[in-house]
Design brief:
heterodimer; A: alpha/beta; 10-stranded mixed sheet; two-stranded antiparallel ribbon; 13 strands; B: mainly beta; 3-stranded antiparallel sheet; globular
Amino acid sequence: MDGGVTSVHTRYHPHAAIAGLGITEMGKVYGRTATQFADEAVRLAAVDAGLALSEIDGLLVSGGISDDVHLDLQRSLGLKDLHVLAEMQSFGATAGAMVQTASLAVAAGVVNAVACVFADAPLRESVSAGASYTGGSASGWMGLLAAAGVLGANPLYALAARRHIERYGTTTDQFGAIAVAQRAWAALNPLAQQRTPMTLDDHRSSRWIAEPFRLLDCCLVSNGGIAVIVTSPERAADLQQPPVHVLGWGQAHPGHFLERFEEFGLVSGAVDSGPAALAMAGVSLSDIDVVELYDCYTYTVLISLEDYGFCAKGEGGAFVESGALGPGGSLKLNTGGGQLSSYYMWGMTPLSEAIIQARGQAGERQVADHELLLVSGNGGVLDHHSTLVLGTHPS
Amino acid sequence: MSITFRADPATQEFVDLAGRGEFLLHRDPSTGRVYGPQDTRTEHTPAEAMLPFAASGRATVVSFTFVHGRPDANGVTPRSVVAIGELDEGPWWWAEVEDADPDEVKTGSALRIAFRELNDGQHVPVFTLA
């Protein structure tokens, strides 16, 4: 991949802030549709911001695996005269992409306040979490692969992780170190679904899902919804929450899905979108206080850490088992427990925790220095990546 | 986990040829490069000018995973092998390696393309150990 930094990234300075955050009940919450979760999340975000629902004049919606959040959310919310309305889908990169799109629209002056919402309701009573992400009917090339035994994301990410193991000598215990560190954060997070402390032995003894992944290498599956409200820094300053400023962004969509790619499993879009977002924000990686990485699997964290440059390529394993992670570690990473231990709302998981940390509202898990935060999104099988740099100050 | 696959316009020709025991590839006559079944055109060449041909059926493991199911009533955990195979012609493909002893599957192991018949008579390609 080429570096993602262009002159635009060094020339353009975003002018937008996140003023509202709405998080519904999460996890095994049954009897509600994704649209209902989305509706509630937007209302909660408006209340959180101290913004009348009628002030929202932009709406970006995103549905997860249940694909059940659409433009009619406008009607559900009773929103009139919107100036921005769209469904967005970049898989796990969507949350970052929505904030970027909303920020551009706000900065252009075409809209005052954009609600960006993700909701999903794949879990059903008496159906396993795994089955909620596979099965049913399928067409297209992915359907054909599923019929040939390649079912869902687990084997595809496992194939990627195996390449990292074989190229760099990464170990499953190193994956485990990530899970253990994030569980330690989750223990401090009342929002987290999994708060029981975890040891490396717990990880080693959890059942295999798709080798090299055990159960504790894989994210949760959650029902719920999360919304954020993006507005101008000036409007955000008048509202009731500390503004979280959008300082930089990047996206990377390498385009190698389902084709021969020699670096499959060894590199992610973070290589491109990370430097782009940092350049736009005018900061360096060493300036970042809090890191919220998309963690559908432990391995996803490891490869993202390498590709952002927190450690050298191939040294992710040694880095994560060095004690750098967890509440006592030097790198404040996935401070809510992430998708592995807290809740799985695709890209809204790292984004929501970053907002909570930036505001200083993380309670027991609050990171002391939280002026600059990096948030990643990852979708497909390392096919889509987004980066946001957020901060407590406008520049 | 049951999946019902329905061929669509994008996959129909490939599935039809799979039913005849052929794995469809495409060669771009302008570059000589071989493309996978899903790449019916290239930046150089429109679909009608691409040269379709059947793969030899030989491939090599690029990466592999052992997928574990939930234990059955007897406590036996079903396990399948899934691999990326590099076809001898160049493209990669993703499928289960049927009837494989996991201990026998390594990166670099030789594979053969086989064809799995689905309940409705459609066929999709899978791998076997060569």
